[in-house]
Amino acid sequence: MCSNKRGEEKASHIVSAWSKEDGFCLGQKAVKEKSNEITAIPELLEKIQIKGQIITIDAMGTQTAIAGKIRQKRADYVLALKKNQYIMYEDVKEYFSNEEFQKEMREKGAYKKTCEKAHGQIEIREYYQTEDIRWLSQKKNWKGLRSIVMEKKRIEKAGKITYEYRYFISSLKTDINEVSRAVRGHWSIESMHWHLDVTFREDANTTIDKMAAQNLNIIRKWSLSILKPAELSRHKLSMRKKRFVVSLRPIKYLEELLEA
After folding, report:
1. pLDDT in tens, 151-198
2. How many whole angstroms separate alpha carbon 257 and alpha carbon 260?
């Protein structure tokens, strides 16, 4: 929350547990610095019921203690790998660069390909998953680690083709449909962050009091959860336009939204 500071004081960071399936925040914890998220995530996981669910976290949360907490709570994880786990990242990257291994995964059905058009570009995603990780030297450090995953994204825009690669570790057994849904579904919390910053202009809000700022953050998330599925017109409206429509007749629309 960029404007929630005064002088040398640090702005608050909010760690959120977001339900992709239901579109609302299950819990949150405020921390003073982004690096504190690593210790805040296990504390937040302890407070919510995650049994039987799949937890996805970006690379900062890819920590052995966090993986252990998820498994302790009898849930599964799909954790992004980046260079903060440098050795494992390089090992997994090198493994998936082998064409023979990719061919073997395709033949075993541990492969999925999707194609979609968005924002004026064509995005082709390929997912690979394997339980062949006995060679992974760090395997013993990660509780419940069962498979590794690669997402290869090909982007076609204005005649130009680019590729992006992402790697993950997971406690899931080979099920390419489930793991690809988890990987792709992580965009939901990124979308939530984007709406807070852009649609609700949270970073521009200069509320200094930490508790007041956190309460406003909760209210924005409530509003987002209510507005996103709402149908206020025959036409598809952006979140910004939905907020404007509701502001024209707040009593009428708020009653309808809360009843829905």
Report:
1. 999 999 888 999 999 999 999 999 999 999 999 999 899 999 999 999
2. 5
**Residue with tokens 């900062």, as numbered in its chain:** 60
Q: In whole angstroms, what is the distance from residue 75 CA to residue 198 CA?
A: 33
C-alpha–C-alpha distance, residues 111 and 134, integer Å:
20
Provide, for the chain, the percentages of residues in helix, strand and coil under a 3-state DSSP scheme, each rounded to the nearest 5: 45, 25, 30
Q: What's the half-sphere exposure (Cβ side, CA atoms, 13 Å) at 220? A: 25
Give bridge partners of residue 76 from the DSSP assignment.
Answer: 54
Residue 5 has pLDDT above 70, yes or no: yes
Residue that has been written with the tokens 């395997």 in this structure: 139
Q: Which two tokens stand for residue 32?
A: 């003073």
Tokens of residue 74, six digits: 């009898």
| Band (133; pLDDT cuts 50, 70, 90) | very high
The pLDDT confidence band at residue 260, using thresholds 50, 70 and 90, is low
C-alpha–C-alpha distance, residues 66 and 68, integer Å = 5
Q: What is the pTM of this model?
A: 0.87
How far is Cα 156 from Cα 253, in angstroms, rounded to an integer?
Answer: 41
Cβ-Cβ contacts under 8 Å for 230 (sequence gap 6 or more): 242, 257, 260
Residue type, 223: S
Residues in a beta bridge with 38: none
Under 8 Å between Cβ of 75 and 170: no
CB atoms within 10 A of CB 174: 18
